[in-house]
Predict the structure.
Amino acid sequence: METIRKRRNGDKTAFSNLVGDSEIAALASTLDSLLVERVEKEEKLLVAKNNAMAANEAKSSFLAMMGHEIRTPLHSIMGYADILATSELNPEQYKFIHSIQKASDILLSEINDLLDFSKIEAGKLSLENVDFEIAQIVQDSIDFSLPLIDQDHINISSSIDSKLPKLVKGDPLRLKQILLNLLSNSAKFTCIGEISIRVFLVSEENDSVTLRIEVSDTGIGLSETEIEKLFKPFTQADLSTTRKFGGTGLGLTICRKLTELMGGNISVKSTPQVGTTFIVELLLKLADKIGVEVNHSAISNHHQFTEQYILVAEDNLVNQQLMSIMLKQNGHKVDVVSNGAEVIDAVKKNKYDMVLMDVQMPVMDGLEATRQICTLSDDNKFLPIIAMTANAYSEDMNSCYQAGMNDFLSKPVHLDVLTTTVEKWVHNIH
């Protein structure tokens, strides 16, 4: 306000030659009032902005905490359902278990959507920049989507442009998330016909490529009015769609936001009762030419179990029992402890082949336990430690790797994923 008064007094001399002192005083008073009002409004807006940012931060923290709390019991539900699915069941019982598995997958997907949306809105979603194979991401996405697709009535296919470089650089997990959301959407609205993924090379310049990914289906299609609503959060095409198919209405919103974060764009073409095609265009860097090793998360589905001595660190009693059953079912010997301090004691006493380490535990968390294991002896530097946590963000994964962990499993963990991961490290050890 002092600056405003100085400015006003400085201007007074210029006005005095044109108007009288009373008019100057009136004008100055009006200017003071307007400027004071403006400053007060700006201060209120700043306070409102800060309050909104604090509220958004609190919302994100709350959702992250709730996501962790929900994932922990969901891990047990999905794990025991997987175990029951491998046992001798009559057709009706298998149908019940399959329904539990499908409902659990849907619940997990909706939890992930809410958490990702909150993270994106808060501007805290970070992207990786690693080398990966487009063809592998496409195949992984199809494999993950198969349980959602009625394979008796729907054919799913893929094609990759032969001119496309084998390796590119970017965030493979987020690209897979986009494809999974699009495939899930196609599976939801297609009763018969075909779902396909096609990848085309648009252009290649210097050290980057522009590619186009098309996910097409022969489903119910969309009208122009419905397309306008499609990428809005918490929105379905219409109320009847919401009642029939459910869902948070966030999947396509997340696809759009992830695509934009990756420097690309997403669009849609559709005809009612004919089908829909989603088009994703991305600009990706070419992969490093020298010393590239692509880490495939999956190995053959044919598991030849090799008995391992495995330490499970998990503070939840139900999940302790679940992990023991899962691992023993595959022929492994298992010890279970409840916190990081007990992990240190157990590793000092026994020679384990690997450790499955929860991150959030009382007394000592999994990160600190991992750091201490790495300093115990030279032998422990080669002890695989696999994070197994309900914290599912990329920064959680990075924290685990920085602490010295070798791999990362996000709860809920399916039996086949656990088996694949353990067997992968058996091969790496031996």
In short: The first helix runs from residue 2 to 16. The first strand starts at residue 130 and ends at 133. The CA atoms of residues 385 and 406 lie 5 Å apart. Confidence is low (pLDDT under 50) at residues 238-246, 290-303.
